[in-house]
């Protein structure tokens, strides 16, 4: 009886995996594992990035995971992009930013990062031309303001 | 049909001693605990609902993000369950708790905008172990059970009568299938990733500058982990390195299921798959460490542990022989130089 049950489990899990692979869908923990499967041909790309604003008006990029943890530099921009592209996108992004500002300050007070105190958080869309030595990481070609949050 | 059923049963339930699975259990849960110990899932409970974009598992089961304090409590229980699973104390209930809470906690971040894929195999492996008899060896439970049963047996029967019966109990198909399950899931995952690349990009994924652009792009702080080296830039600037690397990546991924059927393929593709994951971490950043933990299931621990003392003794004998040869050679040299 136990072996029959185990065989049913094997077949169900394998079938779930094969279904997602065949239909190019994702039902975590089943997945078609699409990471890096797209074809990159363009030398440019855009990415959403948060910037902190200090009391003297200076802006700096929150480009390390420790500023936005438990989010990271992959998940957070994609989450914000999904919010932006959904219905009521602008309002949803404006609603999301205060959480991220509060989290930055919480992490700073806990000495989880060395960033300065900030008075505002800004979201930009950055565009880069890929440099063959990635020397322009801190100098995007363009940036477009999306939203701002203040405490 | 009978032949297929026989093959299926032989694949999953080939008789084996419990040692290998017991070591896999201890190492898998032990290293998972070490990896997860510094990770705190509780902040996910503090984000506003605007971030909540539930994945299929959470949507269909109605699972919700709990308050930070509740998540902190759950993760404490989870980590305690990982510890108990690793040392093999209350092994079965500990592994069930480790699987149930692990699926919730590891799944939780994927509801916040992006599904990542580092932990799916960990969930499947935990689930398989939770259903298994992985606590029958290399566990506190097994040690305590042996102490309980051996004492009265020693009093009743001579030792020579106990050996064969113990050996018969010890070898069972139950100790094979959890390992094979992890193999199958790893093969499916690698193969799926290879198929995805070919489906979405075709052979251009290999033959174009795709990988070079990808490696360079990953230097712009876009990943859940920074690349551990800047070697990706070097590879990207040398098409003779980037394109074969792309070809090798797709080949290792799509061919990985051969490891299930061929010992030779296992010898080649299992280390290649591990090297591929290490390469991603070094050159691109994504953190596949949890996935790599599941490589403990590929090691024949019973043979390693059985052979280790023999190798050590052999090496010691060899070293002794070499010392003897050296001393003889030294004497000879001394004689030759007249000392």
Descriptive account of the structure:
- The complex is a heterodimer of chains A (151) and B (339).
- Chain A is an alpha+beta fold and 151 residues long.
- Chain A has two domains: 1-35; 44-149, no CATH class.
- Helices cover 38% and strands 21% of the residues of chain A.
- Chain A has four helices and four strands; from the N terminus they run αββαααββ.
- Chain A has a four-stranded antiparallel β-sheet, with helices on one face.
- In chain A, β1 (44-53) and β2 (59-61) form a beta hairpin.
- In chain A, α3 (75-85) packs antiparallel against α4.
- Chain A is extended.
- The model of chain A has no long low-confidence stretch (mean pLDDT 96).
- Chain B is mainly α.
- Chain B folds into two domains: 18-144, no CATH class; 176-299, no CATH class.
- Chain B has helices at residues 2-13, 19-36, 56-61, 68-87, 91-107, 120-131, 140-156, 159-170, 177-201, 204-207, 210-217, 231-236, 239-255, 263-283, 289-293, 301-337.
- In chain B, α13 (239-255) crosses α14 (263-283).
- The radius of gyration of chain B is 25 Å and the shape is globular.
- Mean pLDDT of chain B is 89; it is low at 159-169 and 326-339.
- At the A-B interface, α1, α3 and α4 of A face α1, α6, α9 and α11 of B.
Order of helices and strands of chain A: HEEHHHEE
Into how many domains do the coordinates of chain B divide?
2
Main sheet: strand order of chain A: 2-1-3-4
Instruction: Please tell me how large the radius of gyration of chain B is.
Output: 25 Å
Number of domains of chain A: 2
**Basic shape of chain B:** globular
Low-confidence stretches of chain B: 159-169, 326-339
Helix residue percentage of chain A: 25-40%
Question: Structural class of chain B, please?
Answer: mainly alpha
Number of strands of chain A: 4
* Proportion of residues in helical segments of chain B: 55-70%
Mean pLDDT of chain A: 96
Rg of chain A from C-alpha positions? 21 Å
Distance between the termini of chain B: 80 Å
């Amino acid at each position: 009886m136990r072996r029959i049950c185990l065989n049913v489990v094997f077949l169900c899990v394998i079938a779930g995996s094969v279904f997602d692979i065949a239909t190019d869908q994702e039902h975590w923990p089943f997945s078609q594992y699409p990471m890096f499967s797209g074809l990159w041909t363009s030398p440019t790309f855009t990415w959403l990035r948060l910037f902190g604003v200090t009391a003297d008006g200076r802006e700096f990029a929150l480009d390390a995971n420790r500023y936005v943890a438990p989010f990271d530099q992959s998940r957070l921009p994609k989450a914000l992009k999904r919010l932006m592209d959904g219905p009521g996108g602008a309002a949803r992004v404006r609603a999301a930013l205060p959480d991220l500002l509060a989290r930055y300050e919480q992490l700073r007070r806990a000495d989880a990062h060395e960033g300065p105190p900030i008075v505002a958080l800004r979201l930009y869309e950055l565009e880069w031309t890929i440099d063959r030595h990635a020397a322009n990481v801190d100098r995007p070609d363009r940036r477009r303001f999306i939203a701002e949050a203040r405490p | 049909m009978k032949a297929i059923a026989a093959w299926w049963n032989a694949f999953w339930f080939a008789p084996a001693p419990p040692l290998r699975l017991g070591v896999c259990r201890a190492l898998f849960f032990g290293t998972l605990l070490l990896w997860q110990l510094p990770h705190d899932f509780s902040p996910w409970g503090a984000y506003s609902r605007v971030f909540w974009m539930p994945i299929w598992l959470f949507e269909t089961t109605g699972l919700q993000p709990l308050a930070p304090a509740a998540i902190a409590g759950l993760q404490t229980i989870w980590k305690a369950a990982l510890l108990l699973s690793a040392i093999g104390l209350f092994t079965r209930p500990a592994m069930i708790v480790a699987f149930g809470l692990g699926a919730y906690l590891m799944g939780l971040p994927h509801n916040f905008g992006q599904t990542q894929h580092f932990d799916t195999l960990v969930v499947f492996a935990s689930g398989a172990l939770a259903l298994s008899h992985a606590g029958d060896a290399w566990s506190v439970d097994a040690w305590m059970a042996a102490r309980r049963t051996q004492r009265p047996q020693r009093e009743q029967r001579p030792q020579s009568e106990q050996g064969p019966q113990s050996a018969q109990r010890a070898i069972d198909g139950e100790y094979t299938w959890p390992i094979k399950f992890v193999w199958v899931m790893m093969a499916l995952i690698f193969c799926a990733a290879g198929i995805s690349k070919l489906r979405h990009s075709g052979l251009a994924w290999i033959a174009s500058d795709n990988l070079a652009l990808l490696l360079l792009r990953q230097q712009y702080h876009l990943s859940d982990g920074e690349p551990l080296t800047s070697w990706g830039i070097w590879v990207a600037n040398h098409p003779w390195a980037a394109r074969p690397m792309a070809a090798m990546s797709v080949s290792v991924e799509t061919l990985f299921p051969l490891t299930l059927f061929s010992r030779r393929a296992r010898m080649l593709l299992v280390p290649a798959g591990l090297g591929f994951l290490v390469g991603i971490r070094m050159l691109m950043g994504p953190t596949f460490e949890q996935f790599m933990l599941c490589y403990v299931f590929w090691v024949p621990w019973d043979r390693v542990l059985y052979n280790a003392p023999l190798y050590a003794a052999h090496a010691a004998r060899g070293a002794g022989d070499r010392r003897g040869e050296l001393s003889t050679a030294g004497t000879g040299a001394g004689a030759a130089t007249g000392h």
